[in-house]
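#lab-general

N.A. 3:47 PM
ok so I finally got the sequence cleaned up, no stray characters, all 389 residues accounted for. can someone with queue access submit it? mine expired

B.Y. 3:52 PM
send it over

N.A. 3:53 PM
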Amino acid sequence: MRIAYFDCSSGVSGDMILASLLDAGLDFEYLKKELGKLKLAGYKLSKRKITKSGFTASKFDVIFPKTRSRLKERPLGEIKNIINKSGLSSKVKTLALKIFENIADAECAVHNIPKNRIHFHEIGSTDSLVDIVGFAIAFEHLNIDKVYASSINLGSGVVKTEHGLLPVPAPVTSVLLKGVPIYSGEDRFELTTPTGAGILKTVADSFGFMPLMSVETIGTAAGTFEAIQQPNILRVFLGQSAKELDYDTDSVIVIQTNIDDMNMVGTEHMMEEIFAAGALDVYFAPVYMKKSRMGILLSAITKKENLKKVIDAVFQETTTLGVRVFEAGRYKLPRFFKKINTEYGSMNIKIGKSGNKIITSSPEYRDARLLARKNNVALRRIYEVARQK
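B.Y. 4:20 PM
back already:
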């Protein structure tokens, strides 16, 4: 399964989505040929490489003659006619129309008018048509099956529109991104446009951390403004889902903190309580901290649904004032347990496989320890006997 992941740490717009996909391998001549089927006149397409904050990125523009405005008010019905009468594939038409329908629904919610009375201003312009239909063309041509995206940076301040100055995010953008993780920073301009929001809200399966994937190519798009906090770029990662590999995959949350001001006698109790809260694993590593003080790096791994309980346990059982939290992907061998009989009694063996091949096997520690004590033999002997089986 081919997937695309969009890193929206500097927001997202329609032209940047298309530029990132061009940078990732979408053929520009093919895009121009397909967009020509819309029969829209009076514009040219431009793609060029630029440097943005030290990063090489692609910039995509729809260029109009100086005597012609880029804006043209179009009702939804006219946009549908343009797309439906084109020679584009049915898949491209369906996706493009779905994006416009979702944006129209948001417009209806903002202006409290029925959909048949919606007139698009910025969204109805030729460049927005190019961005949305161009994305649908790219989606089909690059054989993308699933789309994922990060949380979205909105920007801040105000934006100039046909309705005058509006706060960022614009009202339509706000409605489109209901239920999507969003945030804003110090950059005082619009980082996420209604077109970009409409595209991702329509096609993204989820928003958040990058899924487990094998990356084939990365595309980088440049925005127009110079951001303060980070480069104004949009990145797309194209590749295969890790689920097509011969491993089980999932995601876990890693919680870490450095501690150098508590009595380490209680580390056993600390570990037990964090495990009891739902941690999958807990471990300590010695670290040198400021002023050359010896301390420990506490790491706990948990599933997302137990995150709060595990963090609560860390705060309850340690002296730390803060923790670091990040998501990590896991590749796991499919595993199963098999009961074996030995001269000392029965015990479970954990077996890991890849495909039909056994990669590893190991006696279950608790079973081995019980047999060692019961038979008054060394634990090492139990392991030796088990491995012979």
